[in-house]
Specification:
It is an enzyme of class 2 (transferase). Helices cover about 45% and strands about 10% of the residues. It is an alpha+beta fold and about 250 residues long. The protein folds into two domains: about 100 residues, no CATH class; about 80 residues, no CATH class. Bound molecules: flavin-adenine dinucleotide.
Length: about 250
């Protein structure tokens, strides 16, 4: 997985402050410099004044101004399963790599290549919430269990990619042949969202029990957001952890 910031509003926190000051000023923000707009806000310089303003907005849950700055992220190599989860968020604009126009026939069905690698697959500690070993696997040592897991995963991938190629060879269009590809098949995403939505996605998708892949993606996005809008996302990380690190709904 690779997450990059493609494009973002310049000086997002100046924009947040200008929008918020608009609510409380009798004069028009469009006619004033940023220093004038921020004149009555506490702080020795503009950076401190921005901090005062943004902290106050976040403390009071005044989130509207955070909807003005936007950021666009490019995400490489997440599963279609992760894509299905993130695209549930309705205030985000997405572009998703097409399986109609991009053919997967030259990609290898290897974990880590065309399909995501399950990080814990080779960890004996990885078991589902209600997992019980089936009778045939009871009594196997850790090594044998891990080998069986790896084999089951690789066999499924090979079988599905083999069928995909066969369907293409038989003249079936890529948009139909893709039906046999696994949900772990990798996809690239471009997504644009505002700073408020970034925090909301952080709340839900970086939650302690969110699925590992979307949690990893969200943490990478939040790290980039902290470089883009440092006052906002450092405050979010330090003071709103109870939202971020709770259990997902
Ligand atoms: C751990 C986890 C497990 C999940 N499991 C499932 C599952 O099994 N099945 C499933 O279908 N989904 C599941 N979801 C998805 C979840 O139910 C939401 O659909 C998804 O996270 C989008 O978030 P959101 O509802 O906050 O909406 P967003 O689209 O992110 O919107 C942000 C906010 O805007 C407001 N809003 C947006 N649209 C409306 C509207 N039409 N009416 C009223 N308010 C609105 C709400 O306040 C909402 O919180 C899961 C999510 C998580 C994090």
């Amino acid at each position: 997985m690779d997450v990059q910031l493609l494009e973002a509003t310049d000086d997002p926190e100046e924009l947040i402050c200008s929008a918020a000051r608009n609510d409380y000023l009798s004069s028009f923000v469009g006619d004033q410099s940023f220093a004038e707009i921020m004149d009555s806000v506490g702080g020795d310089d503009l950076e401190e004044k921005k901090e005062t303003m943004i902290h106050r907005l976040l403390e009071h849950g005044h989130y509207g101004p955070f909807e003005h700055p936007h950021a666009t992220f490019a995400i490489e190599g997440v599963s279609r399963s992760c894509m299905a989860q993130i695209t549930r968020h309705r205030h985000v604009t997405f572009d998703i790599q097409s399986m109609r126009y991009v053919s997967f026939d030259e990609k290898e069905p290897e974990p880590g290549e065309a399909v995501v690698e399950i990080p814990g697959l080779s960890d004996p500690g990885l078991t589902g919430r209600n997992a019980d070993f089936a009778e045939e696997y009871e009594g196997l040592d850790d090594e044998a269990v891990l080998e069986n897991r790896e084999t089951a995963y690789r066999d499924a991938l090979e079988q599905s990619f083999e069928s995909y190629r066969e369907l293409l060879d038989l003249g079936v269009p890529a948009q139909d042949a893709r039906m046999v590809l696994p949900i772990g098949t990798k996809v690239n995403i471009v997504m644009t969202l505002n700073a408020r939505m970034l925090m909301h996605i952080g709340d839900m998708r970086a939650a302690a029990d969110a699925q590992w892949e979307i949690r990893e993606m969200t943490e990478d996005i939040l790290d980039l957001a902290a470089e883009w809008a440092p006052i906002t996302f450092e405050y979010y990380d330090e003071h709103m952890k109870d939202r971020k690190n709770r259990l997902a709904p």
